[in-house]
Every structure is written in structure tokens, then in C-alpha cells.
Amino acid sequence: MASAISISGLVVRRSGHPVLHGIDLEVAANAVTGLLGPSGSGKTTLLRTVVGLQRSDAGAVQVLGRPVGHARLRSEIGYMTQEPSVYGDLTVAGNLRYHAALHRRGRRAVDDGLDAVGLTALASRTVATLSNGERSRVSLGCALVAGPRLLLLDEPTVGLDPVLRRDLWELFRTLARDGVTLLVSSHVMDEADRCEHLVLLREGRVVATGTPAGLRATTGAATMEQVFLRLVEGAHEEVAQ
């Protein structure tokens, strides 16, 4: 399968301390790839590097066939940050209209974005009056209005109830079927089975990649949490030897 993101030897340091340690990674195009790992494993740093917001110290990153930071990528990447990137004094629709205007998209894109994240009924509400979960959905809607080829989502389902989480994952799979590549970070191992491909990250290193079924078969584990633990423990044993 073709790769939407190709990473080779990626090293990122902050204040002199390594955060990502020589990462090699291929992210499949037109699929939902889960970037899973505990808090502090480097997921956000990796996403920011792919977007072009984080400077790397070594390595190469290609995104949609172009070097990271290429001007053409600005209209092709949608990025939802962990903290909602929205304007509290604007309405829900106003936030989406603003982002749509930046990408020269019209009212149809705004309406489609509102519908996709289930906020049509709240379109006239000021964002400052919304719950944290609703603000997160506004942020996701803003990432969608540009019609991106690549969506990078940092913990998009945190704080959402089970029904909304299910609905968003269904949306992610629909987007992938329509030709969008999604890289979705999460620290919740239960969400692994909702992804087509997985990247398991720990302490700035890729522990394993593969499909949920493939990783379970390789480790003999029943759950993704057990998969992760067995892979980490196996890595520690190899280092000790």
C-alpha cells in the first residue's frame, strides 16, 4: 500500500533532551492509522513534526510526496490539536466559516463540517458556552472544512461520551474510504481495534507497527494493552541480554 507519510531517522530534541530517537515509519495512504502510547511517549511531537510546526534535529520527513513544510501542504493537511484551537467569542458556525475562508471554501463546506461532527443544532451557540467535548468537536470541524487529504488528530476522542466516540470513529472510517489519510493519536489502548494500522510508541521510540490482529497474533496477547506490555517487556529483555 502507498505511503502518505514517510519518516526516516527522525530525531527531535527539546532543550537539549531527545524526545524522538531516530524514528523510521511509513503511514499508509487512505487508511486510519492509530498512533498509540502512554502520555509522554512523543505522540504530539511526532504529529507536530509531520505538520511542520516542530523542527527536527536529524532525519527526513516526506508528506504526500513532498518534504515536510512545503507550502502546498498547507491546504492538504488538517490538524486537530489536543487542546481545542477555537475562538471562544465566535459561534460554532463562525469558527468553521473562518477556517473555510482561509482555504477559500464556501458555505457547503461549513454545513458539511457541522454535520460531520454533529454540531448543526449548536451552530449559533458561542463556543465559550460549550462543554470541553463540544469544543473539541468544533476544533475537529475546523480541521475538516478545508477538505484535507491528510488529517492529523491529537487525542480527538478525549472527554467524549461512548456514543460520540463511536460516531467519530465511524466518521474517520468513512473519510478513509473517501480517500483521506488519518493519523489518530490516543493513549487509550481500547481504541486500537478501531484502526486499520497501528504504530505503538514509547519513550520516543517505535515499539511496533502492524494491524491489530497481526500484533495480537505475533505476541499471543488477547488485548492491545497486553500486546503493548509484552512488546515493551520483550524489548527490555533484549537490552538486558
Features:
disordered C terminus; 10 strands; alpha/beta; four-stranded antiparallel β-sheet; Rossmann fold; six-stranded mixed β-sheet; globular; 241 residues
Give structural notes.
The chain is of the alpha/beta class. The protein has two domains: 1-69 and 153-159 and 178-241, Rossmann fold (3-Layer(aba) Sandwich); 77-147. It is 35% helix and 27% strand. A hairpin with a 2-residue loop joins strand 1 and strand 2. The longest helix has 17 residues, at 224-240.
Topology of this protein?
Blueprint: E1 3-14, E2 17-28, E3 32-36, H1 43-51, E4 58-63, E5 66-67, E6 77-80, H2 92-102, H3 107-116, H4 132-144, E7 150-154, H5 162-177, E8 181-186, E9 197-202, E10 205-210, H6 212-219, H7 224-240
Parallel strand pairs: 3-8, 3-9, 6-7, 7-8
Antiparallel strand pairs: 1-2, 1-4, 4-5, 9-10
What is the compact description of this entry?
This protein has 241 residues and is α/β, with parallel strands linked by helices. 35% of the residues lie in helices and 27% in strands. Strand 9 (197-202) and strand 10 (205-210) form a beta hairpin.
Helix count? 7
Overall CATH architecture of the largest domain: 3-Layer(aba) Sandwich
Separation, N- and C-terminal Cα atoms: 36 Å
Percentage of residues in strands: 25-35%
| C-alpha geometry | globular
How many domains make up the coordinates?
2
